[in-house]
Amino acid sequence: MNELVERLTAFNAGLLPEKVQLKYEAMAENAFRFFRGTCHLFYEDLAAAEPLPLSPLAWICGDLHIENFGSYRGDNQLVYFDLNDFDEAVLAPASYETVRMVCSIFIAFDHLDIEPEKAYKMAELYMKTYSAILSTGKAISIEPRTAKGIVCEFLKKAARSTEKDILKKRTVSKKKQIMLSLEDERHFKLDNKLKQELKAHINEWVRTSNDGPYHYEVVSAVFRLAGTGSVGVKRYLLLLKSTNTKNKYLLLDMKQARASSVAPYLPVQQLRWNNEAERVIGVQRRMQHVPAALLSTTVFRGDSFIIQELQPVKDTLKFKLLRDDYRDMYQVIDDMAALTASAQLRSGGIQGSGIIDDLMAFGIDQGWQAAVINYAKDYADKVKTYYRQFKRGYSEGQYNTDTSLNKKHQILQYEN
Fold first, then answer.
1. Scanning 8, 121, 320, 322, which has the fewest C-beta atoms within 10 Å of its C-beta?
2. Record's PANTHER family (predicted)?
3. Considering just the CA atoms, what is the radius of gyration of the chain in Å?
4. Is residue 59 within 8 Å of residue 91, measured between CB atoms?
5. Contact by Cβ (8 Å): 79, 144
């Protein structure tokens, strides 16, 4: 067994074996999806490399890349474009967030056959805008009234989405009842005992949690697949029906929270959270301009879970759509840089993170950006090497978990 096989199989050993096989299938699609599924490799290698220039500590999402920005409805009912994945969130040097994001630019552009010169210019743009926003000390937010270009259109389209739209995609009608569809390739049937326990648990959560929706009960539940890096964790989708409003439904995503894959490679003492789910939403609430609706946690069968509404407006901006429009691409990267800096400013001075003055000074300093870009560019080449090794090993069966899979759930179609 070679070193890469050992590193990947060791990291994924604690996940559900049959779902890990689907994760490996997804990672084999291209180098960008491989990068998304191997956050742990990135930080393990970063810790062993020559240190980046010093930067203030900041709260980071930990797995920032160009498809971890998207739309969502906040608990104030407005739609925002912001960072949207905090599974790996930790307290870390601020530059850790930017170096992973810039690396994703190089990998994604290469995958989309965009010229290396454009990738480098976009990396420079990202660092320039990130530094400029930090230097102002003032966080910004992006919603339909303030968005520009394709992000504006993206948010306006998201705002027009309705509950009926998402129910139509996810459910079927059986015997005059609405149920979650098992024809959806992202949905798997649950064992009956687990389903009944899960329904009882969420019904109790609705009754007792301050974060839960009032007057709802669970009518259907399935196992859910989504993303790349999180494939293999326990994840459920629940359909809730209002008990006092006719034909009113709600979809809840319930995802197991694991320890951050960034944390083992940090020389920074972390907070003692009650559990991993509390860590995820705790950092999310301090970094996002407005927290997502129905964001909460629960503990089920000894594991902590993140609960949030599966919204019709929640979506990820697919970067491949920008391949042929340089102006839109420029605006999106500029927005992503501004949001990265804003999230760090918004959470500045909280429980160990650098104060606003430190972050502003870091943004003004022009002596560190080139080192981040150069490391990210070199590491993107390393990811491509890893990917070729992985693809070869995968085709040879070195990652076979030897589990029978439900063939209707074939690869790559379940993406979000």
1. 320
2. DUF2252 DOMAIN-CONTAINING PROTEIN (PTHR39441)
3. 21
4. yes
5. yes
Q: How many helices (H) and strands (E) does the chain have?
A: 13, 13
Residue for token digits 């083992």?
264
Distance CA 105, CA 289 (A): 24
- Token look-up 């009926």 returns 164
Which range among 32-46, 311-325, 339-353 shows the weakest confidence by mean pLDDT?
A: 311-325
Q: 57, 354 in Cβ contact below 8 A?
A: yes
How many folded domains does the chain comprise? 1
pLDDT beyond 80 at 313 = no
Task: Answer whether 104's CB lies under 8 Å from 35's CB.
Answer: yes
Burial tier of 371 (Cβ tally within 10 Å: 0-12, 13-18, 19+): middle
Does any domain span residue 323? no
Query: Could you tell me if 276 and 220 are in contact, meaning their C-beta atoms sit under 8 angstroms apart?
Result: no
Whether 114 maps to a domain, the answer reads: no
Q: Which tens digits make up the pLDDT trace of 34-50?
A: 999 999 999 999 999 99
pLDDT tens by residue, 109-165: 999 999 999 999 999 999 999 999 999 999 999 999 999 988 998 898 888 888 888
Distance CA 74, CA 171 (A): 24
Of 20, 19, 99, nearest in space to 58 by CA: 99
Tell whether 248 is covered by a domain. Answer: yes
- First CA to last CA distance, the chain: 32
Q: How far apart are CA 377 and CA 383, in angstroms?
A: 10
- Per-position b or e across 15-27, b if 16+ CB within 10 A of its CB: bbebbbbbbbbbb
Assess if residue 246 is contained within a domain: yes
Q: Which of 124, 115, 114, 150 is nearest to 323 (CA)?
A: 114
Q: Tell which residue, 284, 298, 264, has the closest CA to residue 350.
A: 284
Domain carrying residue 264: 163-271+294-309
Q: Distances in Å between the alpha carbon of 339 and those of 50, 98, 209, 325? A: 28, 11, 31, 21
